[in-house]
Design brief:
Length: 183
């Protein structure tokens, strides 16, 4: 990005500045490569903005016991068939840590653990009505946050961004988005 300066460019012939003249109003220190923000950083900032806004609004609506990692588990449980070992893999933690996390979610009323029909050692994690209500509240809040972005960029830009990201992120996975995991 070329940044305008606040005054005229120095004149090397008059002893101002060094090197060739850069032209009036151009900051010679500007570096287009350095000033270009990597997409990874933009995605990380966007993620933080959305997740922080989500949890702030959920708390305002009475969902005060929700942790960021809970969302990853609840989203995975929504499709059914989730086991404790799956939660451990999803969160990148030990089976014992995953079991404690599931205990906390069950105690909060978000999930139940039921006996697996074909594996007596495993239990299936199922969403409760409260867990489904929380996910519905999450979707409402995300729609509100996206509407704020649309107020700045316009709805077509937001929908284009969604479409482009869905295509890009699904491409290596046969067109399907992979499961979301914690950073």
């Amino acid at each position: 990005m070329i940044r305008p300066t606040s005054g005229p460019a120095p004149d090397p012939a008059a002893g101002g500045g060094s090197g060739p003249a850069t032209g009036a109003g151009v900051d010679p220190a500007a570096d287009p490569v350095r000033d270009r923000v990597p997409l990874a950083r933009l995605f990380a900032v966007g993620y933080r903005v959305l997740v922080d806004g989500l949890h702030r609004r959920l708390a305002e609506r009475g969902w005060t016991d929700v942790r960021v990692t809970d969302g990853f588990v609840l989203l995975a449980a929504r499709s059914g068939g989730l086991r404790g070992a799956d939660v451990a893999a999803l969160l990148g933690v030990s089976k014992q840590a995953a079991s404690k996390h599931l205990d906390a979610l069950a105690n909060a009323g978000y999930v139940t653990r039921e006996r697996h029909q074909s594996d007596d050692r495993a239990k299936l994690v199922r969403l409760t009505d409260r867990g489904r209500a929380l996910l519905a509240a999450v979707e409402e809040v995300y729609a509100e946050l996206e509407a704020q972005w649309a107020a700045v960029l316009g709805v077509p830009a937001i929908e284009s961004m969604r479409s482009d990201l869905t295509t890009l992120l699904g491409h290596p996975h046969g067109g399907r988005l992979p499961a979301i995991t914690p950073p």
